[in-house]
Amino acid sequence: MNARPTVLVIGIGPLRERFFAVAERRGVDTILVDETAYSRYDRLATENHAWQLTDHQDPGPDLDRLKSFAGKVDGILAFNDWGTRIAARLAKEWGLPGAGPAVAEELTHKADVRSRLAGTGAELPFVLTADPAEAEELLRSAPSGEVIVKPVDGAASLGIRRVADPAELPAALSAVMSTTGQPRALVEHFVPGPELSLEAVVSAGRTLFVGVTEKTCTAPPSFVETRHVIDPATQRELGPSARHFVDSVVTALDIDSAVLHLEAKRDGDRWHLIEIAFRPAGGLISDVLLRATGLDLYDAALSVALGEADPVRTRPGTTPQVAAVEFVAGT
Predict the structure, then answer these.
(1) What letter would DSSP give residue 12?
(2) Helix (H) or strand (E) holding 10
(3) What contacts 157, CB < 8 A, 6 or more positions away?
(4) What is the DSSP-derived secondary structure letter of residue 167?
(5) How far is CA 94 from CA 7, 13, 68, 311, 314, in A?
(6) Are 147 and 191 in contact (CB under 8 A)?
(7) What does R_g of the chain's alpha carbons equal in angstroms?
(8) What span, in angstroms and rounded, lies between the C-alpha atoms of 127 and 147?
(9) pLDDT by residue (tens digit) across 44-102?
(10) Pairing of strands 258-267, 225-230
């Protein structure tokens, strides 16, 4: 390890300024590589590179430039979805802690995740299709009478459609596939009820922490998240079953070391996975969790990336409390 540890950050996104403050406080240098090169991070990261690493799911022209950091960094992180697979692959190649070989090599889109979950009880019936007739067959089997049609590789609820009428399936499939240019869409059973997110810290295949976040979303078809709430009472009620659910997902996906963001719904006593991201949550959830529990996911992410034995540490003297953030969207 370098005298001053260095972490390579692949992809960052907005509202992540506090991560760099955590790194600086810990004496960790950061090398940021992000295609958009957010100018707000210019003076926060030790180095900031505007390299194009991906062209949708294909390699971008600057991907090979990451090889110049081999042997020069002590850990690798990603804070957006396109960066997580690159980070996992480099961690594997360079012998550094990472999310694991499945994330690096196999889980290229959402259908791969769902296939790995088969038999765990966390999966939902789904088809990967461009055929309205195949989607209609799945719709007719849905207990709720509805399906969700979504891109196989999108994020932030981009392009999602909720469909109850078979006549709407052709248009929904077409719209979803055009969102990311993929030849097929993912269609799965819709589960009614509120969606929760689970913030998990996993080290060497062991789940060390799971926090429960209650979410509020806009009405269909957009499903944009507008509020995140972390309540100690909800944590006490749902924490044990959420921990068991996350354990089953970690095992099924062969996760090694990562901070995870899972989106899930409960159907009675059963949890269903809606989405999983192999990175800390966005939308200021990490900040809300810090206020509610004293656990800093950014600090945990650095510890996981650097291979530290105890990545879950709460601030001394923290009393669990309700914390929340709400977003107001202008039109």
Answers:
(1) -
(2) strand 6-10
(3) 217, 222, 223, 224, 225
(4) G
(5) 13, 25, 12, 21, 30
(6) no
(7) 20
(8) 11
(9) 999 999 888 876 566 677 889 999 999 999 999 999 888 999 999 999 999 999 999 99
(10) unpaired
